[in-house]
Amino acid sequence: MSAPHPDSWTEPGFDAFPDDWVPPDDWAPDDEFAPPPDESTAVGEASAPRRHLTGADPLSVLAEVYGYDAFRGDQAEIVAHVVAGGDAVVLMPTGGGKSVTYQVPALVREGTGLVVSPLIALMHDQVDALIANGVRAAYLNSTQTPDERRLTEQMFVAGELDLLYVAPERLNLPATKALLQRGRLSVIAIDEAHCVSQWGHDFRPDYLQLGALADDFPGVPRMALTATATRATHREIAERLRLPDARHFVASFDRPNIQYRIEPKVDPRRQLLAFIRSQPEGAAGIVYALSRKSVEQTADYLRGQGIDALPYHAGLPAPVRASHQSRFLRDDGIVMVATIAFGMGIDKPDVRFVAHIDLPKSVEGYYQETGRAGRDGEPSVAWMAYGLGDVVQQRRMIDQSEGDLAHKRRMQQHLDAMLALCETVACRRQNLLGYFGQESGACGNCDTCLTPPETFDGLVPAQKLLSTIVRLQRERGQAFGAGHLIDILRGADTERIRRMGHAQLATYGIGQDLSDADWRSVVRQLLARGILVAQGEYGTLALGDDASGVLRGETPVPLRRDTIGRVTVSRTRKPAASADVADGDRELFEALRAWRAETAREQGVPAYIVFGDATLRALAEQRPSRPGELEGITGIGAKKREAYGDAVLEVIAAH
Ligand code: ADP
Ligand code: ZN
Questions:
Q1: What is the pLDDT of residues 130-162, one digit of tens each?
Q2: Whose CA is nearest to atom 16 of ligand 1?
Q3: Which ligand gives the minimal distance to the CA of 428?
Q4: What's the predicted TM-score (pTM) here?
């Protein structure tokens, strides 16, 4: 997107609109993250009418269409509630299985299910997957030719679509509203419903108008679905989408297969490289950075180190973005280095790690971004390097942002919660879930659980630092950033110290017991707790609200001792661990994988659209030899049995 943007430091992607940002007239949001051309399946090849599903038992639809033998978690209850005509607010983590909860009611109820979806990539993925399962799904968006759009519209009016995907901007057009009145809706599902929240981080103005659907389609059950779960967002969704009587379904937000790790930033690139090299070869991952420049530099660096890394940010030409995204989805082991413009709507289930080399602006953002790892439930890692520079930079960005006071305060609260997560000496998962209002015990699968951090009494160092700041202020009317203050405390002999005569200060050299890195860690933690504040363009340090108690010695200051080991980088990545497949089945599993790759290539779809790993594993274990034996295998519904059954049986027989 080339639209001018008031905050030069934010990526003008969907995730970053400040509240006061007004899109230019020619803004076509659904052009932005269009998938590569070869992926843009038009309307599903109109298969035979599936009206026999109307009125069918949801469980049998689940088995026949998706090849799943049971609903998971709250799915059955949600489906039953909506099929009976009730409204629902569904909060479920990424990978929890939200799609089924509106798709099954859409198939079972009379009419077409309308799905409001914020991004083209998301629609394309969902529609591809539905068509592969034999469902008559289609979307309306700007990647289509007028003829394709017309065909979709005709099919909708004729009642020949089970599901129709539309972006909110298009839905709000009078022409679209008129079209929808000419057909019959079975259910309305508003996906990524947190986009309605101004409190959250993905605000999309057009979501605000979706409340009108209540009047436009009385009697049609409406659902709002999201993977964001703060109470404030939750409340806003129900209010703004006008769902006062909806039943709320709140799943646990824990993602037990994701291991959370946050380490102090020393040499971020080498730390990142060491981390990636510690991951299995062929593992796909996403590295998030804040600026376009840092994205490009990091991708270059990783490529120079032999990692298959690609850059992605909104400043790259659309065809380049599309081709990088397509390679990430299809090829094995691509590391995508990206701004937050990348990710929403990426349904790739086997992303093995998400790394942050800059601090996210909120816990919601962090949770969403890390949540893109391990949708398939296999072990995955969320890794982050975070340092003093991040805190100073973000405080400054908030200071200088153009929003009003309330907006700044909100951003400040977001940052404080994020910093608390980074600095906690307790379980990361506990902190994260606590933020979403969910209680849990220590998880045993995060860095602080696995290697509990040491703490030390930081009162005296904090007092030394604070009194240096106070003296400079009172005696000389001066303020400085962390670097110079640490030089004073450590008794350094720099040009600046000589020029300013700072060797004469009473606190000069009183902090030699701590290293430079230790002092930076102290400053970072004091900033995170509001004992210090960073001000102005240069991030000069001043006393925060909580400083006086520390100076008086009344407020204890337990600090986390950073374990900054030397970063050792191995030369190669670990060999691939052929996930959970038993030794005896591995060869067949690999043969099936090769067949899947070949088939996916022929059909121009990502491999996971053909079959997921869980299905290949079940095939390798159970070794069906007749078509009938394919029936109980997870992920193989009627359509896929017909499309791939013979080929799969051949691969197994040949083995
Ligand atoms: P979400 O939209 O909540 O992120 P999805 O709807 O994409 O999650 O589902 C996540 C994964 O779980 C998908 O691979 C999906 O096929 C699988 N899945 C969902 N429901 C079931 C079920 N009842 N049984 C087996 N697999 C399921
Ligand atoms: Zn833990």
A1: 999 999 999 999 889 999 999 999 999 999 999
A2: 97
A3: 2
A4: 0.77
